[in-house]
Each structure stands twice: as C-alpha cells, then as structure tokens.
Design brief:
homotetramer, alpha/beta, Dihydrodipicolinate Reductase, domain 2, seven-stranded mixed sheet, six-stranded parallel sheet, 12 helices, 16 strands, Gfo/Idh/MocA-like_OxRdtase_N (chains A, B, C, D), oxidoreductase activity (chains A, B, C, D)
Chain lengths: ~375, ~375, ~375, ~375
C-alpha cells in the first residue's frame, strides 16, 4: 500500500486518439460549486481538461487545485491570461460574475458562468455586450435543464406527446432554510430560489413570461420579513403564447428536497416526481411507506452538472449553439424582479414594467 | 483546444494528505467488466490506484491500459509479480479464475474475483485452500449486494423492520437472451443468470439454502433444449431457518431489465422495484404511462460496481472483513448445481446431494 | 322467472328494530342528480325512506317515482305539504333552489339542497333568513366533502399529521367540456366548476378566503369568450390564516376526470391521487402503463353521494349539526363572484369587494 | 320521522317494463356469506328477486329474511320445493353443499353454489352427475373471477396485450389467521385459502395444472402442525400449455389483505396491486407513506359478489353459459388435494395421482 504523490499534470485518462480534443478549462472560484465542476472536469468529462483553479482565498485555491492535479491561481486575471486556457468556468460569488465575464470575453476565452449572471439588469447587459463583441461562447449554469426528468418533460412537449401546453405547475421546495444571514443577502426567495424555476418555466413552455402575480407568506422565521422577503411563495405566470402557470416555492419541506412539475396540454399531461435513494416499499401494521426523497440538491441533480459542462465543451469544441445562452440567463432575472415588485405592491406586474431596453448592440442577438 | 497526450503515470487526483493510502490494483482481463473496474479505479475510487491491466489479447491490454493511463501486461503472472501491485482484480473468463487466484495468493496478493469463482466445486476448493493458506483477502464480485435497493432490503431485515422473514421472492429477468453460442457454454441459466439471485437469497435471508426444486421452460428458442438448458425458470428454495422462497428467471422480459424482490416477515413486508431513467408519467387519451425501466445491467447496477470495489479496498487497507468471501462465492455454485440436477430429475434436490465435503484445511474457516 | 309488478309502498328492507327510525324524504327534481339520490335513498340508506318525487316534467316524475316505488308529484308544493314528508332533497335547476328552500322552510321541512344554493347573494340570503327563522336544518350538497380521499386530507390536517397548513393546491379538471349552450348559462367556469373547489379549499384549510386572483385562458372553443368565460383557469387564494393556494381548472383533460389536491404543512405534506377502475400495470416493449382514471363524476364520487345524504339523515334524526351548512353554501359563491371580477379586471380582488353585508337576522348564526 | 314497518313482499324497486324479468332466488344458509348475497339480491341486482332464506338456525333464518323482506324457511327442502323459486343460492357449510345441489337439481332449480362444492371428489362427482342429468345451470362462487383487477389481467391475456403467458405469480395473504378451531376443520390452507388462487390460476392462464410442488412452513402457531397443516406456503404449478407459476399464501400479513398477481408473457407483463381505502400519500420528516390496503375480503371484493350473481341471473334468464361451471368448481379441489399430498410427501405430485376418473355420464361435458 502506497501513500500517493500528487501528480501535477493532467490527471484524466485518455484514449490517445489523435482526433479526440479536449477543452482546457480554468475554474474561477473554489467554493462548493467550483469543487463540483473541478471534480467533474477531472474525473468524468472526456472532452475537458482542468488547467487551473483560481480563488481569492489562497487556501481554497491550493486545496482545490491540488485535489485535482492542476495549478492554483490566486488572481483570476492570471488564469484567464494563461494561453493554455480555452475557457473559464465562473463559480465565484454572484456579484463578481460580470467582471470576470468581461475579462474573459476581452481575452477571447469562452465562458461558462454559474447562475445568476447578476441581479442587476444594467450590469448584466454590460457583460453581454462584451460577450457579443468578443464573439466568445457564453453558457449560463441553469443545471436543471440538463436533468433527465425535466428533459423528459421538455422532450415530450417538443415531440407533441401532450399536444399544446396549457397549464404549467412547478413545485420547488428546499429541505431546510439557509441561515438568516444568508437570506439577508440572497436577493430574496425569487432571485435566490425561484430563479431556477423561472428559467425552467421558459425552458419547458418555450415562450416568454409576460406577467407575474405573487402570493407570499412568512412561516418559518418572522425576522425574514424585515428583509422584505418571504419563505413561502406562489408565483403565477402568464406566458405570451397563452399558457398560464404557477411556481410553488418553500424554504422548508420537512420531508426533503421537493422538485416536481406538471404540464397539462391539449393532448394529455406529463408530470415528474422526486428522486429517491432506493425504491424499497415497506408495509407494516401501521402504514405502507418508503424512505424520504433525496435531500440535497447535489444528490438530486448530480448528473445535471456533468451534462451541462459536457454540452458546453461540445458547443465550444464543435462550434454548436450553447444550450443556455446569456439571454437565457438574463430573462429569469427580469421575472424575479417583477415577482418582487408584485409582492411589494400586491398586484400583477408585467415584465415590461421592470425590464430595461436592451442595449442597441444586443438587439437582434440570439445569444449565440 | 489541445489534443491530449497520454500521461502514463497515475491519473487519479488526490488531496495530498499523508494519511491517505491507496490500494494498488492490477486488473487481469480487459473485457467489458475489466474495463468497468478500470474506469472506476481510475476515476471514481479515492482509495485505489490502477497499476496495470493484463490481457491475453495484446490489443485489449493496450487499449485498456492506455485509456486509463497505466501499463499494459500481456501475461498475468508478470502483473501479479510486480511488487507495486497490492491486489488483483480478476476479470477474465470464468474458467481462468482459479488459476489466477492461486497465482495471486501464492504471490501474497489480495484478490477481488468476478463471479463465479468457477463452476466446479473441486476446482473452487483448491483455490480457496490456497487463499486460506496465503492469508490473503479474497472478495467475490456479487455486485448486487452493493446496490442501494437490495441493501435496503437487507438492512430492513437486520433492523427488524419486517420482523422474522418468512417468504422470499426474487424476480430477475434479462431484457434479451444472449446469442445461442454463448448460452451453449454458459453453464445454463442457473449457473449463468440465477447465480446472482442465489447469492442474493443467502445475503438477504442470512441463512443457508437446504433444498431446491426447479420448474423450467423453453419459450424463446427450441435449440436451447439440446444443451439441457431453459430460458424460463422458477427455483423454489427452502432455507435452514425455515424461510421458503422462489426465484423467477427469464432470459427475456421485453420491457427491460426486471430486477425486483420481496420479503414477507412476521412484522411486515418489503419490496423493491425497478430503476428508471426518469420519473415522468404521461397521461394521454389512451393510457397513463411511463418510460421503460433501465434496460442494461451496467445502467441498473452502475453504482454497485463502485461500492463493491471501494469496500474491497477498505477491507484490505484497514484489515476489515471482506463483505463477500470466497465461501460466499462457493455457496451459490452449490445451489446452481442442485438446481440443474433438480431440473434434470424433476424432483426436489437437497444441497447435500451435490455438495462436496470441504477440504480439511477449510473446515472452520469463515472466509476471512 | 317472473315479470315483476311494481310495489308502490316503501321498497327498502329493514330489520324491524323498534328503535330504528327513518327520515321520510321527498325529492324535488327528477333529473340526473335527482335520480341518483332517489336510488341511494331507496337502495342504500338504512336511515332514509323515499316518499315521493316531484318534477315539473310529468314524464320524469312518473318514471323516477315508479322506478323507486314511490308516488309521483307534479308540483313541489304538494310534496312539501305532504305530512308524511320530513325533509326535502332539492335537485331542481339552480334558479329554482331558493323558492323551494323557502317553501320547505315555511312548511317546517328539513332541507338538503344541491349546490349552488343560487348564484345571487341577495337571493341566497333571503332563503337563509327563512331557514333560520323556521329553525329547520339545511345542508348543501357539496358531495366531495364526503369523498374518502378529501376526507383523509381534512382528517390529516385536523389530526396535525402535516403540522400547520401553508400551501394548498387543488387540481380539478373535467374530461370533456359541456355543450356551448350549457356553458352559456352556466355562470362561468368559476360558478359552475370551480365552486366545488372553492368549497373544498375552505373545508380543507378551515379558514376563510380573503382574496383571489385569476388567470384564465380559452383553449377549446373561441366562442366561449363571448360569454366572458374561459375553459382553463388558475385561481390563487389567500386565506385569512395566512395559507396561500391555487385552484387549477380545465374543461378538458383528455385522459379523464382529474381530481387531486395537495397541502404542504409545517410538518409534512399530503396529496391525493385519482381513482382508477383497476390497479393493473402493463409493461410491454414500449411503455409501463395503466388504464385511464375514472372518467365521470358519478363513477369517481359514487360513494360521496351516499355518505352526504346519510349524514344529513343522521343530523336530522339525531339533531346533530349538519356537515355543510347554508353559510357553507353561500361562501363559495362569494369566492366565485370575486374570481369572475378578478378575471374581468385582471387584478386581485378581495372578497369584501363583492360580498353583501349579511342580513341582520343572520348575524351571529353559525348555520346550524 | 317514522318507525318503519316491515314490508314482506318484494322490496326491490323496478322500472315496470314488461320485458324486464327477474330470477326468483331462494338462499340456503344465512351466515355471513348468505347475508351478503341476500343484501345484493335485495338491494343491488336489477335482475333478481329474493323469495326466501332458509337456515337450520331458526334465529338466523328469521333475522335474515326479515332484514330483506322475504319469508324465512327452516328446512331447505321446503324452500327448494316452493314453485316461486327459480334458483337457489347455496351458502351453507361446505359439507352440506352437495346434498343441497342434488335436491335442487332434482327439483329442476338452477344453482349458484359457494366454493368449494365439496372437498371430496367422489362426492362432488355425484352431485355433478345429478346436475347434468337435470339439465339445470350450476355456477360455483369463485367471486374473484369477477373482480375488476383480475378481470383486467384475464382480458389482457385474451387480448394478447402481453403475448403468450410464460410465468404466473399469485400472492394471496390473509390479514390474520382464523381461530385454531376453524383451522382444524378447514381442510388445510390449500383447500381453504389457496383454492381461490388455484381457481384463479386456471382462469387466468386458460390451461390445466398438471403438477404441483409445495413448500410449507408453520410460523404462527405450532399447534397447527398437528393437523398436518401450515400457515405459510408456496405452491409451484406446471400447466399443460407450458406455463409455470407459483402461489404464495400466508395466513397472516400484518399490513392487511394482500391480493396481487403478475403474469409475464412473451410480449410483456401485467400485474395488479392491492386496493386501498384512499389514495392519500403523506410525507413527513420520517417517511413517505400511505394508509394500509383494505383489510377484509368483503371490502376488497365487495363488487365481485354482486357481479357474479348478476351474471348467474343473466345466464339463467337468457340461457347463456355460466361463467364458472361445476367442472371449474371441481378442478381446484384436485389441485388442492395434490398440493396436500405434495406437502406430505415432499415431492412434486402430478394431478393424475390424486384425481378420480370422471363418472361416465360426465365425460364430454363442458359443465354447461
């Protein structure tokens, strides 16, 4: 039995086929999600190679790069400027995203950026302008689009298995609330939690949301009220193609991470259920029961993180459209802003009330 | 974008913690299952390191070792004798298993061996004698023991969630029959397919099978009859603790790989269902339906292959009991032999009728 | 084999226990729902006796009374005034309900009245004033309250099985739309369909609705628009106890009658599914599927019609509170009126905007 | 409110259509199952009329006939000889069945007889000889054939929805064992419980059982052993069309009445599940659970008792084949006898070993 040394070079096995190419990626940000992507690039993706990990925290940068056999960087600019880097994967705090997008775009590097791009539309648009100008690819990390359950819903709709969509319901409840300190700076339940569902609603229905109305409630900690936030919410949606829908969010479903949706169409309906650790059903003298659903987003959505990055690499390597563009990253922010306004003013809010006019240089762009 | 070179050294990332140790493994056999283990050791196991892959086929040995960044070996003896190798993972054809076990044991190497050890009890026992003499660990690859569903059944029984077990049913059906050529040399449905279920029945009930009775039928290809084999079978089991049970095998369930079981106990029952690609349910004007269950054993049991090897490494590194011993590998072979005899003679067969007396040097051994 | 004569007397078997009493009921209205109640009283209720059936249609009155071995009446006043009648079961067209309630109340007869009492609050209140003055029992026929699935939800909430309710979702979709002619006079989807769900929401949550907001869409027949109606609707609800919720209605779910609900509480959630003709699951090479849910409200809610009338009889015979009072019949009408206004004005509407002040003589009344 | 008198005449409502005919039935035996049939004839069947109920117990005869508005009889011969009686429904103890069948047949009355006809083949055959000679209809009360779930399985097989059947599994477990006193005289688990499943296996597969093998165990009360009986059993079946199968019986499944089956065919599989009181699913912090399945055979199979008698009446009134003939009643007895022998001798038993040659006068008869 040996104590292993640390190989500093690339650690990913390859079949040395001359035609196989890999995208050389640098990760910016070494927190939880950065580590997830580092792991996936290193151990699971055939078409990616991890060049380095940068973090403002020297310790995190070192720990994460060592664990994945690559170089640590203490300043993201250095990483971006490394000519060996083809693309960056931005996993930093949300308020740093656009600076890093802009830096990468100017350096001609392709960009995978965690959601949300930012919570300020003006700031987002400035970044998108740079992306378009640079002609680099930008994919936003709405990972649930790559989950097998949601994909099946989307596929069913596209294939006409349920006819024309008419009603959408999304249920998206967390197993437990984050600390109050986090909630305070989270941008509120709509920008923080529901934004995934707002993206999902556009993704599934294939149409833009025009108007929202929000019912909110505080059930867990009254202190949350002082931040203008809630822990329980129903957002209703009206889409431009006539579909109507609702998004149900809660910061706490005691039975676990509850992630379901349902679409009624003219030809039928489709719904997806939660994922479980096992399929065992136990019947005893008091009940027929099974274990709780998977409790943590990393367990529930494990594969989606691999698939999204795999598709990003494929998009860049083979010059295909990215599956979730910068404009796709922008749109749910508008919905979240409208939701907050609706809650504050207790009335339906049209998205045009909160949206900004697109910068001229983005007009007509499809995000690719 | 770069075309990658092949790093020949270890490819697994590590956190360079002095206390972290890895088991250096050599794989013997580079077919399908050998490649699976190579992948898992290289990319998924924190406590293992792949030293080399040997195969009688020069092409397979090279292809597999290159893909996993290790050395190819064209003779398993060389691999076994490599002092860098702590343990071997035997993935060759079944009839080569015991020679390789014996060679490894004599070289003092720990052994993970795919199932079945062999189909001949005399041959098995000769190998076990060497293993015991050498004092090395031997784990047999009944991977389903490490599947989350079956584990949940086992755990429920041990925890008393269903009281004392009384009846066991296992359903284990393949999606499609193998080629007739394969069937011919497979040892028959009981040695080839049902052996997993025979192991599972011992694993779940925690007691030895004493008697079997077999009903068999040929439904797919009459040619199968000439090999004394069937494609459809019900094996009934009587355990020494009084539990009774059945194993249902079919070479073809057109809806996919059907792997379920159920145990009735004095305090309740537990059953497990198939695994599915997604949880989507579609209702249209003709039916409420979902997609078929996972169709291939590698999709259904993916994780179990990782867990079994992880536990093997843990057993060796930390000198713990292995979770599936050589004797556990021997027992289902006895059941399969009895099943075949029962089918041939159309009568219940006690296992003592087909079993051999254990070699003296194995008496009293618990396989650890 | 005999051709049967028609026994004109009571046709219900009894165990001639001196203490067993029956409520003598006259049915007003011999359409579909009148026939259902006649059947249940005659053949299924131990505590009821059918005295007669009245209908403005001579043919219907005769046909229904003959079929149930009782006397036909061609004028409901005659039936009400029959001293043998203890109670009436009003099954006529909605716009006749209150006249008949008033006549029955003045005659001192107890009243079971189909929903809705009326669609005009002023008219409803006039009837309730008479009911209260007469001191007779009035139960409104919201039969779903008596369905085993919804009862289980209610019981779970009351027993604290899911803690304090936080979010309610009701899905209530018809298998096929009624004829346009019917829709025209139906009072709209909220007064006609959703009113059941508005009652259910109060019943389950045990609190009053304070505000509604409605999203509506026309997906089936554009002609429906000209009546100010829709065929697809989401009504959001805000309850006075802080619960928020949604009601999803569609005039057409092609897979059948879709009747589900879900409540999230602080301690868990409960949801109920559709009822099916059988539990068979068929797996073939294309899907795992089952037959469609029950397609017709009479199949889905068969038992609830029996239970509701049984409880009405029990209330009267043993002077217990009725399980669904006149005020319970009034409240969903207010919600439906608010829903229509919300749809017309595209804004949340508080119920106080459409409600009338209760007549002085009803203030403080609990409906019993 | 009135205290009801007891109408002694027919109590069933009719639509006085000249063409509607009813079968006048006398019930022999006023125990539990006799009361069920009396109730169904009186209150639920449009095509039947209850003439009288006979019982050796004066009290039971009176109680049951009064409850259903018909005449009590204290001697079944008197009931049979009543010219108003078209058919008898035999609900007495099993050992009286054949005497009553013979008496009814000789009187030219059609016969519905509860299962089993008898447990002695010679006795059964004597009765069948009389039935055939008299040319009356005889239907045996295997009610599960009329249950919607089992019917769906049968229909699927006949319609080819699963191709050619290959494997059958029946699970049939009672919620609690009967008193030891009952067990003693029950004829054993195979004649008492499993006989339903033996009928079901022939019904579903549409082929005769040729051989059985039985595994039995005593898990509940060791005293049961002294009667040569068991409380837990697996019977394997080999059908003449090549299908193989198993029947799993237990006198006690603590979670309720467990009634399921599954058939694998060349084109797919079908399985049916238990029936539940409600469809509610509750998720809390410890499990996802639902209430237990229906616990009592009368709740589970309520409708089947109505349907079987309805079809019997239809057979007689319209001279159609009965859906479960005297020969269908005889066949499961042979299987049960073979099962007992198999258990006693611990070996597979062919049915020809226990069967008697059919009396000459029954040869070639199809039971109609």
């Amino acid at each position: 039995m040996s104590v292993q040394e640390v190989p500093k070079e690339s650690l990913k096995a390859v079949i040395p086929d001359e035609t196989e190419r890999r995208l050389n990626i640098g990760i910016i940000g070494a927190g939880r999600i950065g580590q997830v992507h580092a792991d996936n690039i290193t151990f699971r993706l055939r078409n990616a190679n991890l060049v380095g990990v940068s973090s403002g925290s020297r310790k995190l940068a070192e720990r994460c790069s060592l664990a994945h056999g690559c170089e640590p960087y203490y300043d993201y600019h250095t990483l971006i400027e490394n000519p060996a880097v083809d693309a960056v994967c931005i996993c930093s705090a949300s308020n740093q995203h656009t600076d890093q997008i802009i830096a990468a775009a100017r350096a001609g590097k392709h960009i995978f950026c965690e959601k949300p791009i930012d919570t300020n539309l003006e700031v987002i648009d400035k970044a998108l302008v740079e992306v378009r100008k640079a002609g680099v690819k930008l994919q936003v990390g709405f990972n649930r689009r790559f989950d097998q359950n949601y994909r099946r819903v989307r596929d069913a709709i596209i294939a006409g298995e349920i006819g024309s969509p008419q009603i959408l319901h999304i249920i998206s409840r967390d197993p437990a609330p984050p600390p109050l300190e986090y909630v305070k700076n989270s941008g509120g339940i709509w920008m923080d939690c529901a934004i995934h569902d707002m993206d999902m609603s556009r993704f599934l229905i294939g149409s833009e949301v025009e108007e929202v109305y929000v019912l909110g409630a505080v059930n867990l900690d009254p202190a949350i009220k002082q931040y203008g936030d809630v822990d329980t919410s129903i957002v209703t949606l009206r889409f431009s193609n006539g579909v109507i829908g609702s998004i149900d969010n809660s910061r706490q479903a005691v039975y676990g991470y509850d992630q379901r949706c349902e679409v009624l169409g003219s030809g039928g309906s489709i719904h997806i259920n939660n994922n479980y650790q096992n399929s065992a059903v136990i019947s005893n003298s008091s009940a027929v029961k099974r274990d709780l659903p998977l409790n943590f987003f990393m367990d529930r959505y494990t594969d989606s993180f691999i698939v999204e990055l795999n598709e990003f690499c494929d998009s860049v390597l083979n010059d295909k459209p990215v599956p979730c563009t910068g404009l796709d990253g922008r749109a749910p922010v508008v919905i979240a802003l409208a939701a907050k306004k609706s809650y504050q003013e207790s009335r339906p809010v049209r998205l045009t009330e909160v949206d900004l006019p697109l910068p001229e240089s983005l007009v007509g762009w499809d995000g690719q």
